[in-house]
Amino acid sequence: MSRYDKLDQLGGSNALPASPEDAELERVANPCAEPYMVRLVAPEFTSICPVTGQPDFAHLVVDYCPQDWIVESKAFKLFLGSYRNHGDFHEACTTGIGQRLVKEIAPRWLRIGGYWYPRGGIPIDVFYQFGTPPEGLWIPDQGVPPYRGRG
C-alpha cells in the first residue's frame, strides 16, 4: 500500500465541485521536516459578483510553509474551479481560500495575494496571512505588479 492510496481525485476524472463548501481538499504528508516554501499560482481564477452575476477575474498567489501536510495540486485546482459559479465579493473569496487551506493543511505560515482585475474601473487587491514565517524562510516577492491599465 502506497502513502498516496487515499488520494481519490488524482489520476481520476473529476467534475468541478458545485461550491467551495462541496470541494474536497486532499492532502499529502509533507516530505521535508525543514522549513521550505510552496507557491501555488492561479493566474485565471474566476468567481461571480454576488450582486450583478457578472464574472470577476483574479491572479491568485498562495505561498505557504508546510507543517505536516501539503495540499494535493489537483484537489486545489478543483477547489479553485468550484468558485466559477460562486457569488462572493473579492475579499470573501481571497480570505476564504486562505482560511480553508489553513483549516485543511495547518501550515506553519500561509499568505495569499488576490490581484483582482478591474470592473467598474477599480482594481482590488486582497491579502491574507496566517501565522509568522519561520526564521530564515526564503520568501520571494509575489511578482504581481499593481494594475496600471494601458498607461
UniProtKB/TrEMBL annotation:
InterPro entries listed in its UniProt record: GTP-CH-I_C/QueF, NADPH_dep_7-cyano-7-deazaG_red, QueF, QueF_type1
Record's subcellular location: Cytoplasm
UniProt keyword terms in alphabetical order: Cytoplasm, NADP, Oxidoreductase, Queuosine biosynthesis
Residues annotated for substrate binding in this entry: V71, E72, S73, H90, E91
Catalytic activity line of the entry: 7-aminomethyl-7-carbaguanine + 2 NADP(+) = 7-cyano-7-carbaguanine + 2 NADPH + 3 H(+)
KW ATP-binding (keyword) present: no
Signal peptide residue numbers: none
The enzyme's E.C. designation: 1.7.1.13
The protein's annotated pathway: tRNA modification; tRNA-queuosine biosynthesis
Enzyme's top EC category: oxidoreductase
Keyword Oxidoreductase recorded: yes
Domain of life: Bacteria
Active site location: C49 (thioimide intermediate), D56 (proton donor)
UniProt-listed NCBIfam families: QueF-II
Stated role: Catalyzes the NADPH-dependent reduction of 7-cyano-7-deazaguanine (preQ0) to 7-aminomethyl-7-deazaguanine (preQ1).
HAMAP family from the UniProt entry: QueF_type1
Family membership: Belongs to the GTP cyclohydrolase I family. QueF type 1 subfamily.
Official protein name in the record: NADPH-dependent 7-cyano-7-deazaguanine reductase
